[in-house]
Amino acid sequence: MSSFRKTLLGIGEAAPWFRAPALGGSPAYAFDTVGGRIVLMLFFGSAAGPAAREALAKIVRQRALFDDEKACFFGVSVDSSDAAEGRIRQVLPGLRFFLDEERRVSGLYGAAGEDGSYRPHWLLLDHFLRVVGRFALEDGDAALAAAAGLVLAPPAQDWAPVAAVPNVLEPALCRRLIDLYEADGGEESGFMRDVEGKTKLILDPSHKVRRDYLVEDPELAGEINLRLIHRLLPMVQRAFSFKATRVERLLVGCYEAETGGHFRAHRDNTTKGTAHRRFAVTINLNAEEYDGGDLNFPEFGPRAYRAATGGAIVFSCSLLHQALPVTRGRRFALLPFLYDDAGAELRERNAGHLEGEAAKYRADNDVQAG
Predict the structure, then answer these.
(1) Of the candidates 348, 190, 225, 367, which has an alpha carbon nearest to the alpha carbon of residue 275?
(2) 8 Å CB contact between 77 and 112
(3) What are phi and psi of 251, to 5 degrees?
(4) Superfamily the domain 19-152 falls into
(5) Where are the domains of the chain?
(6) 58-105 per-position pLDDT tens digit
(7) SS3 of residue 253 by DSSP
(8) Whether pTM exceeds 0.85
């Protein structure tokens, strides 16, 4: 199948996700993580021409609009001399460029043709990264005015498609898990990223600050799994029509105000080593003992979510979500993932992309959860 789309994206279409080097920034910028903000893209091809230069000048004049909180701008160039000669550069917050010499990103969006042609245009995306406006290169004023209008609109208060399930764990078991964490002290928690064909654990305190304790005692794990099977999984099937049969990791995470505990916006199934995950579960262990730290789903507005102690919030691993910074105390949560037999097969197929013990995963060794 050709990687060159034959038409430009239309109103209402979902913008393709991709990873690409951001000029002066991440070597594998994950475009899907910008959800929850207004996004203005400019496919200009080369900044050497007068029309492209004027379009970029309009961005500079409206620079204050792009603060990375409510809105951000991405320019796409296929001309390596744009960077070499200083015609484009990253300016944070808010202004980023992809040097798309192989036309991979431009092809996904229909800007680049297989015949070498290029169709410059502006593309305006909403909080869900869906197209709400498309403008000719010369219509930059209209594109910027439309972006500003969306930024100034009142924030949406939509409900994210999550399930809240109370009373999954009783208070005594919650406290027991916290005590086990306290005795162990936990270890620094990372996040997964595909790097050169391998899914690697990355530690980056600007993205995530948390410490984790893994429940490994078979008897305790069995007690927890019984509660998940009888109290949680039936509600997951009712809410999402998904029959979970397997649980990945019984992990107690701790976010501390003192260390700035948080986890920036991410999705839980975007690497080879995590693609099998279907639903994420957050079971609060001490909901009354901290401030901040709630779950938020940026694509659905600023609403925050917190289950009572022993209760769970369950959501699809494909949803963009973040753990907001804890501002007082410590937040403890049990953080398993749910998947099914098909997910187990996928996990086994992808195990070779992982390192260490995870690379030895076999579906037949899983303990069935339902």
Answers:
(1) 348
(2) no
(3) -120, 130
(4) Glutaredoxin (3.40.30.10)
(5) 19-152, 163-365
(6) 999 999 999 999 999 999 999 999 999 999 999 999 999 999 999 999
(7) strand
(8) yes
